[in-house]
Structure formats: C-alpha cells, structure tokens
Amino acid sequence: MSLFLDSFWRAVFYCLHPRVIFLSLLPLVLMVAAAMGLGYLYWDSAVNTVFVWLESTAWMESLSRWLQEAGLPGLKNALAPLLVIFAVTPLLVVVVLFLVAVLMMPAVVNLVARRRFPELERKHGASFTRGAFWSFGSMVLAVIALVVSLPLWFIPPLVLILPPLIWGWLTYRVMTFDALAEHASGDERRQMFRGHRMWLLLMGVATGYLGAAPSVVWASGWFFAAAFPVLIPVAIWIYTLVFAFSSLWFAHYCLAALEQLRRAPPEQPPQQPSLQPPPQPPQPPEQPLPQALP
Fold first, then answer.
1. In Å, what is the CA distance from 123 to each residue of 70, 180, 181, 188, 258?
2. Cα separation of 108 and 247, whole Å?
3. Confidence of residue 250 (pLDDT cuts 50, 70, 90)
4. CA–CA separation, 26 vs 213, rounded Å?
C-alpha cells in the first residue's frame, strides 16, 4: 500500500514537469490530424447511417413523442451524433494509449529513472520491437473485448463497469511491460507481473475510470456548438494527459518495486534430507595388550 500511494503522489507532481507537458502534446497533434481527416471523410455518412437506423426502430418513435411532450424536440437530432461519439470514444482511447506507449512511455521511464533511480541497472529485457508487438496485441484484444461487450453497454450498471475494466486491463498490460522493458530482465518482469498483479491491475482500473471522465467534455461539444472547435481538442489532450499520468504512475511503482526486488536477499532453496548415515564419532586408538612375563 505504501508503494502504491507513494508512486501515485509522485506521478501527480511529475505531471507538472515541463517535459511531461510537452510530451503530452505530441499524441494530441497526431490525434487531431487523424480525427479531422476521418471526420471530413466519414462523419456525415456515419451520422446519417445511425439516424436512419434510429428512425427505423420502434422505441425511437416513442422517444420522439416523449421529447416533444417534454418540450425538447431538438434532442432527437442530437441523439445520432452522440451515439457515434460514444461508439468512437473507446477506440480513440485505445489508439491514444497505443501512441502513448510507443511515443511517450520510453521518455517518461527515462525521466523517472534518471531523477530517482540513477544507479538501477538496465538489463534490457525487451526490445522496442517486442514492446510494440506486445502493445499492439494487447490493443487488439481490448478492441475485441469492447466489440463483444458492446450489447451489454445498454444495461445501465454495466456501461459504468465494463469499459473502465477493459481499459484498466489494457493499461495494466501495456504500462507494466513498457515500464520494465529497459531495466528488468525477462525473469524479473515475470516476477513483477506475478507478485504485483493485483496492485497493478487496480492502478489500471483507476486510470481506466480517469480516462472515461473526459468523455463529458467530448460529448458537450455537441450541446455547445460554438465551443466545439475548442472542446474536442481539449478532451483529446485530457485523454493524453491522463495516460501520461498513468505512465508516470506505473514507472514510479514498477521501478521502485524492481529496486526492492533486487535488494531483497535471494531465497535459499529448502534443505533436502540427506540419505547418508550421520558420520560416526572418531574411535580412540586401540591400546596394545601387555605381553605376559616369562
């Protein structure tokens, strides 16, 4: 628990470091460019497809009647864009996490190692290529889990539980591997995954809920159309900053735990019972018998 809380507060203070703020802007530039390109090409067709699907459903007619009676007929037109946003947001989070893991995580780990653990030996247990494949494979599994669990999101309690759990699992796998890739050997990394799995998974779930919070800013851009060009980039930057905080949290925790692991005395193998009989005490030399007198 002490390591968990200590790494949390250190990550909060490190988020104010100028280099961390600068690094958090790099994925933002890439994501804004990608979002603008995809929105220019596919936004209208995606919204129209969802709107046609809503018009063909029976419950949409009842919802439209209820909104008209409540004096809010304009919300009907905002429903289709909101559904597109809520469907794209999890994929956006996954892509941002992948970009942070590839672009930001090595720089953040080096920053933490240089300032806190300059004497910690770097054993280079995983290459950059292996880390990229690990992050990509974890991202694919998370996307599959998001798609499979999508029908359950319409159940009110599960929509608040399943996405943060999936994001938390993905964060736990990606951030832990990247935080230990440079300093830990393969055996040490596996020991860390086994010995600290519950705390690391808890950290991932906590950051998963933090990553879901900026969705409010993302969705509010459709209710405040004048602020749309500002709110959406701000939401993407908040996503990136949350993942920067996640990488700092995992870097502080994993490197501190790795240092403790190396300082701990090695475990002694259990003593095996010996099958040989115990040694006999030395016998005194025999005294010669006195000879008889003639």
1. 65, 10, 9, 10, 12
2. 7
3. very high
4. 21
